[in-house]
Amino acid sequence: MKFLHLLWFIPLLLIGLVQVSSAEYSFRFYCDEPAMIGYPDSLNGYIAPLVNTGDDDTLALKLIHDFEPGWTGFICIDELCFGDTVNWAMNGGDSSTVKPDIAPGGNVGEGWFSIKINSIGNPSVADTLDFFFAAGYTTVVVNGDPNDNYADYYVDALNENGIQCHTWPRWYTPLTNDAMDMLDMIYWFTGDATTTLTTEDFAILSDYLDARNDFFISGQGIAEDLQDSSFMQDYLRVAFDGVTESREVDGIDGDTLSDGFSFDIEGSGGANNQTAPASLSIMNWFATPTLMYNDSGVAGIKYSYHTHQIVYLSFGFEAINDSQTRADLMEAVSEYFELETDTSTVGIDDPEDTPELPEILRLAKSYPNPFNALTNIEVSVPDQQNVNIAVYDLNGRMVEQLYEGHMTAGTHILKWDASEVASGIYHCKIAGNDTESLQLILVK
Predict the structure, then answer these.
(1) What is the pTM of this model?
(2) Single residue among 301, 336, 371 that ends a domain in this structure
(3) pLDDT in tens, 10-39
(4) Where do runs of H (alpha helix) occur along 250-384?
(5) In the chain, what's the furthest Cα-to-Cα distance?
(6) Residue-wise DSSP of 233-283
(7) What letters, b where the CB count within 10 A reaches 16 and e where it falls short, cover 66-81?
(8) Phi and psi for 64 in degrees, rounded to 5?
(9) CA-to-CA distance for 37 and 146, rounded, in angstroms?
(10) Do residues 265 and 277 make contact, with C-beta atoms less than 8 angstroms apart?
(11) Could you tell me if 389 and 433 lie in one domain?
(12) CA proximity to 329, closest of 307, 308, 302
């Protein structure tokens, strides 16, 4: 009898084992544009679709960062926002949109952060996406080196001339049209890359140059890699004339950019990475030599076309073996581009360019947002009027009255101290001759 009972129990046990072992936990997490140049004084968000490709599961998301001072970040999923961690339940086959958001709080800088996701059903099923964010200089050094080795040579030379800049990790992701729209000047280097520019790069740069923007590019493998491309012919306007053994570069007497320069592109004072610097042939009258190898090959060209200029060095600028020479040459390049000391930033208005009076009644912005306890709310008033400004929760209940009464024309700053209020999404509303609301995100 006991044996019969055991026979009855074994199939149930096997069924249970089959159900557990058949559970497959998996998900897909990706972002088409994981790098961004954004505004220092606003909320900047990424779009990262998340698809549960396995069984029903709960996914644990964590924001990992080493932000610039004053920056905050949080995770939004679909229409809900959280702090830097959240557990998100998903049925098999369901999709959600993860939206990591960065608020620099008016602070310029750049940095990396990550979103790590683990399956609760099987913690060994995990993935991590890396993101890059910069806010918000209008000059950028595009780092096309696959080993990410040489950006400091360019940044330091620009900084020595008072030009502040960001770096863009081209080795990680292409430059985007949105980022290009925020830039005034691009310095691009390819370092040790063998594939120097892609068809994606051609499209982006063609639009940028067609819009009459200045451009600097440097790299030992560019001419050889692109020798059959239309970009080489139509934009750089040179041809590949072969690899040179020369490592000595000289300026041209009387040249507006290079007169008086003489330097080596080998030795310990620079990157010492030049294995195949190229000699160039000029293709048309637009381009003129500006630097020469000591074997008489063309080492760099410059040209002006309508309202934009290009400087192309067929060796790696990073290999110039003296830091002062690099700074001096970058100064000459900047003067050729007619660049002045660049302390400008995207998203921060120049007071001299700000209209004397706002055109409409509005809540222009809040900063920081998201915030922890205290935020500043900018109010624009076109003409003197009575206004009511209050903060409401998502259920429409008033949380705090910020202002009620007469307000003069101009821009005003109100502070909301939310230290006694729970984390969440709130709306600040202004009512006067017009009405408007502004979303505020409180993260504690």
Answers:
(1) 0.74
(2) 336
(3) 443 333 333 332 359 999 999 999 999 988
(4) 323-336
(5) 109
(6) IIII-EEEEEE----EEEE-TT-TTTTT-EEES-STTS----S-PEEEEE-
(7) ebbeebbbbbbbeeeb
(8) -115, 125
(9) 21
(10) yes
(11) yes
(12) 302
